[in-house]
Every structure is written in C-alpha cells, then in structure tokens.
From TrEMBL:
It comes from Knipowitschia caucasica (Caucasian dwarf goby). This is Gastrin/cholecystokinin type B receptor. Receptor for gastrin and cholecystokinin. The CCK-B receptors occur throughout the central nervous system where they modulate anxiety, analgesia, arousal, and neuroleptic activity. This receptor mediates its action by association with G proteins that activate a phosphatidylinositol-calcium second messenger system. It is a multi-pass membrane protein. SUPFAM superfamilies: Family A G protein-coupled receptor-like (SSF81321). InterPro entries: Cholcskin_rcpt, Gastrin_rcpt, GPCR_Rhodpsn, GPCR_Rhodpsn_7TM.
Length: 416
C-alpha cells in the first residue's frame, strides 16, 4: 500500500527485528487532542472540497469538458482517500487497537491502495491532456474527446484495482502478545518480496508520475513563456512604428527634394489623425493583452505549485516505506513520534490540496459554484444558461481567430 493506513501497519513489526510492542505504540503521540484536531481539519476539508467539485461538475452540463472529466475522477479518488484513510488511521491510533475486524483489515488496505493509485494516475492524465491541448492544440482536437477521457479513466481505475491486489492478500489482523489489542499489518512471505513491492510502488506511483508531470508542465510553461514574449513584442511594435515614422520625417526634411518637403505636412497630419484613432481603438486591446499576460503568468505559477506540492506530499512517504522495507529497525528508531505523524499528515493533505489547486483557484469554476448553489428560481436558471452560453460563444469565436500562443490562454483558463 503506498500510504500507511494505521500506525500499526506503518511499523510493520516482524519477529526478526526484535522490536518490542512498546516501540510500536510509541508512534502514537501522547497529545491526542492535537492529532484529532489536525486529522479532523484535513478530513472535513477534503470531504467538503471534493464533494463540491463532484456536485458542480455533475450538475452543470456545460462544465463537462475533457479536462473536467479527469478532475471529476480525481475528486472521487481523493474523496475515497479521505473517507477510507483518515478515520482508519486516526481511530486505531487513539484506541491502540484495530477494532474493525479481520475482513475490514483487508478491505481497508485494498481501498487505500486503490484510492492513492487512482489519484496519482489522474494527476498524470491531467498533465498529459493539458500538454497536448496547449502545446499541440490542432492535433489534440482530433482525439481529445469525452469518450476518449472516459476510456482513459476506466483504464486507470481497472489498473489500480489490479495493481493493488497484493494488499488484501498480505494484510492480516494479529493479536499483540499478552494483550487483547490487535494490529493490522502486512505479512510478506519473503523479505525480498516486500522490498521489490515497495520499490515498484516508488517507481510506478511516485518517480515516473513525478517525471511525467515535470516534463509536461515544464513544456507547457515554456510554451506560455514564449506566448508572453510574443505578446510583449507585439506591444512594443506600435511604439517602434511611431519612432520609425518620426525618424523618416526628420530624415526627409534634411535629405528630401522639394516635392517631398511640400507634401510632408499633409502626411504628418494624416499620420497624427490615424495615431489618435489607433490609440483610442487599441486601449481595450491593450487591456485584453495585459489580461492574457497575467493569466499566462498565473498558469505558470499554478503549474509550479502543482509539481512542488506533489513532491512535498508524497516523497517523504514513499522514501519511508522503502526505508522500512530494507531496514525496519532503524526506520522505527529514527521516525517514531512526531516525524512519522508529520509524514502521515503530509500525505493526507494531498486530498484537500488538489481541489484548491485544480478548481477553486479557477475563476470559471468559482462562478459555476456560485450559480449552482445560489440560482434556484427559473429566471435565474435562464440567466445562468444564457450567460454560460454567451461565454462559450465568445470563447469559440475568439479561439477561431487566435494564434497558437493566444490559444494557450483559453485552453488553460477553460479548465474546470
């Protein structure tokens, strides 16, 4: 299982290590109030945020785009992670006993692995989909459809169910010596099998997805940066034209013949009139251009945040799991107490961070959220449909005449 679901399973005590039960129980802090508070906050934020995403994307048919289809799958997997992981980690930690029975020991381990796998695969699918839509917009339109997204999501879910089959097999409920308490732990037939398993998880669910996200979002950021440079160069063009006209006029006064000199006031007058008209007409265009630049900069910052948060949340956990598989005794000695609780907390926060990064930071999603819960009367519904239809028609009309760099803004801002 890529993330531990109870501290007993995290320690994974084996007879060969010689670690006593007290070292296992020391992973549970004495300050239960703080632990309950932190776990409860993460739990309610994760459940509330992901439920909002599911409701908004399900109710609003206009929001059912290709990217939003992947975001819906991500929200479902994160909701599953919060519901399955957090309670079954917190309650046994407080009671110092896995009270849910042997069957739940296997079921919970299996569902935890599935939820984490689907969440990671969804993040990778979103990264690839955004890269194709932004860096290869013309080619991506051919195959990026909702039916294709449904097939990809179905494949990721099936793959997660298959990959995590070893967890219900190796998960067992065992009774502690001289105690009525039980712990749910993984009992592998061979130490090499466990080591191979955790290395496989490190590669499939962390290293490879991390590299894919870095490459995809790095290429997207480069494309957006080129778009920013293109827009900045386009803004400098009018000033360069003005300077060119001025220099040409001044040069003509010195080197031109009499015929050119006699015509110069007329050309200067006409150019000044045209410049005044162009200044008035280019004011809204300049505002639009500045808005596009700011939007692209925000997207670049958001992509950096996505990659950084992925590594912050998951790297410590997978490193600890691999370390524990190879040297359980030293891992227990170094990570018991506050460190292991902090690592657990980081992994659980991914379920509440993803909704914030991918949806709640998006203006279009926030508007859809307000319309979903505030518009109950039929006139309001009519205005909502009309406003959304007008926005989509404007976006389609704009995208039809856009260059590649301008299209990236619509593609990224249209997500969610």
């Amino acid at each position: 299982m890529p993330m531990p679901y109870v501290h007993h399973c995290d320690c994974n005590i084996r007879a060969r290590t010689g670690v006593c039960v007290t070292e296992l129980l020391c992973l549970v802090g004495d300050n239960h109030t703080l632990m309950i508070l932190l776990y409860s906050v993460i739990f309610f934020l994760s459940v509330f945020g992901n439920l909002l995403i599911i409701v908004v994307l399900t109710v609003n048919k206009r929001m059912r785009t290709v990217t939003n289809t992947f975001l819906l799958s991500l929200a479902v997997s994160d909701l599953m992670m919060a519901v399955v992981c957090i309670p079954f980690t917190l309650i046994p930690s407080i009671l110092k006993d896995f009270i849910f029975g042997a069957a739940m020991c296997k079921i919970v381990a299996y569902l935890m692995g599935i939820s984490v796998s689907i969440s990671t695969f969804s993040l990778v699918a979103i990264a690839i989909e955004r890269y194709s839509a932004i860096c290869n917009p013309l080619k991506s339109r051919v195959w990026q459809t909702r039916s294709h997204a449904y097939k990809v999501i179905a494949t990721t879910w099936a793959l997660a169910f298959v990959i995590m089959i070893p967890y219900p097999v190796v998960s067992h409920l065992q009774r502690l010596d001289n105690s009525t308490a039980h712990l749910c732990r993984h009992k592998w037939p061979l130490a090499t099998a466990e080591q191979t398993w955790y290395i496989l998880l490190l590669l499939v669910l962390f290293a490879i997805p991390g590299v894919v996200m870095i490459v995809a979002y790095g290429l997207i950021s480069r494309e957006l940066y080129r778009g920013i440079q293109f827009e900045m160069g386009h803004k400098k063009a009018p000033s360069e034209v003005k300077n060119g006209l001025t220099s040409a006029v001044s040069t003509g006064s010195d080197d031109g013949d009499g015929c050119y000199v006699s015509q110069r006031p007329v050309s200067v007058e006409m150019s000044s009139i045209n410049q005044n008209k162009s200044i008035k007409s280019e004011r809204p265009r300049s505002n639009t251009s500045e808005a596009k630049l700011e939007a692209k900069k925000r997207v670049i910052r958001m992509l950096v945040v996505i990659v950084v948060m992925f590594f912050i949340c998951w790297m410590p956990l997978y490193c600890v799991n691999t370390w524990r598989a190879f040297d359980n005794a030293s891992a227990l000695q170094a990570l018991s107490g506050a460190p292991i609780r902090f690592i657990h907390l980081l992994s659980y926060t991914s379920a509440c961070i993803n909704p914030i990064i991918y949806c709640f930071m998006n203006t279009r999603f926030r508007k859809a959220l307000l319309l979903t819960f505030s518009c109950c009367a039929s006139p309001c519904r009519h205005r909502r449909r009309q406003s959304i239809r007008e926005q989509e028609e404007d976006a389609l009309a704009t995208a039809a005449s856009m260059s590649k760099f301008s299209y990236t803004t619509v593609s990224t801002m249209g997500a969610c």
